[in-house]
Structure prediction request, 113 residues.
Amino acid sequence: MSKVTSSPEEQRQFWQMVLEAWQASGLSVRQFCQQEGLAAPSFYAWRKRLTQAPKDGSGPSPARDFIELTMPGSGPVALELALVSGNTLKIPADMDSRTLREVIAILQQAQLC
Prediction:
């Protein structure tokens, strides 16, 4: 069986979504990890990595910060999705259906909608 590898940035994004889903779930870490099939030690390690401020003040912000992204040439917002994490996803009217399906599938996989 081949092992699927992902870049460090993809791993960071995945665990960021996991932390947001856990916070919204109201479950204990143990319950959440068991429900999602995650290793609790990995959860704790990533939570520490994503929430601790670097000692020198550089690097990524704590997990609760976010960056607002705007797609170039985006038209007016046609749809807003309220995610269980408390964030809002604004979908432009001119987004193609394939991309929208992929975004929704990813959010469902991470249990954010």
